Amino acid sequence: MKNLLAITAITSGAPRAPLVLRGDLVKAVGQAADWGYDAIEIHIIDAGDFPLPLMKDACSRYGVKVSAIVTGQIFTRRNRCITSPDPANREAAMAEVKAYIDIAAALGATDGVVIGWVKGNRPDTQQEEFDRLLAGQLRELGSYASNKGQRILVEVINRYETNLFNTAAELREFLDKWALPNCWIHMDTFHMNIDEADMPQAIRTAGDKLGYLHVADSNRLYPGAGHLDFAPILAALQEVDYQGTISLECIPEPDSMTAGVRGMAFLSKAVKCS
Fold first, then answer.
1. Active site residue 91
2. Most buried among 81, 95, 186, 254, using CB within 10 Å?
């Protein structure tokens, strides 16, 4: 199994947000290369401020790919959501996601664009109407992304953060029911450890729809700093012939360098042995 290994990056974030590289994104590309990563996963705050020419140059210069562009800041910073009951909010969220897709295409992202919190929460009532709305929005984004050579990566997030798609089975059922061919399952070992009774089986359930993987240990620190057993997880990835990126999304403690270097040491050895 040969997977790209990526590391997360953002210009600024909360101290305990699970984003390893902070600050200047061009410098982050160089750091990723120095630590042995194949790719960088970028959490964009505002598409309008993104230094696209500089990032294209840096990735080319350092030989680092972009694995994915992540949309979470659309929700956390501006409270925009693709399923908002407010049509203006929905329209703004969709426009922003499409701008992120444009950036992913320009950078030649290997895996796609992550849809996490920006997809919203399922309401207590009118759930079928909500699901129809969400499916329609994802279909539109999937079509837009396909035309740009990109994929939509829908993230499975634990129940303490959202009530929508807490397990791979829930998301797989939704994608199959609504026939969303360019939407893929994005899993995260931290979230899986909370809501999946059997993590390797969850990967098998995702199967050929598994499109992206975040890794962190049980405490959301770098792999090897907690008690997760990654061997059966990696074995399951091999079973389903997962060809996508494995991206380090963990709390940068005790500091970014330690998390990034130790995360790479653990992952490179684990992937090589799987």
1. no
2. 186
What ranges do the domains of the chain cover?
A: 5-273
**Amino acid identity, residue 86?**
D
What's the whole-model pTM score? 0.97
Query: Using one digit for the tens of pLDDT, what is the confidence trace for 54-99?
Result: 999 999 999 999 999 999 999 999 999 999 999 999 999 999 999 9
Catalytic residue among 41, 96, 196, 249: 249
Residue from 129, 155, 196, 253 carrying the catalytic annotation: 155
In three-state secondary structure terms, 148 is coil
Per the structure block, which two tokens stand in for 38? 């194949």
Q: What angle do CA 186, 188, 190 make, to 5 degrees?
A: 160
Q: What is the DSSP code (8-state) at residue 123?
A: -
Give the side-chain half-sphere CA count within 13 A for 98: 14
* Residue 140 annotated to the active site: no
Question: For residue 247, what is the enclosing H or E element?
Answer: strand 246-248
- Give pLDDT tens digits for 170-207: 999 999 999 999 999 999 999 999 999 999 999 999 99
Domain 5-273: CATH superfamily is: Divalent-metal-dependent TIM barrel enzymes (3.20.20.150)
Residues 71, 120: Cα–Cα separation, whole Å: 12
State the CB neighbour count (10 A cutoff) for residue 111. 27
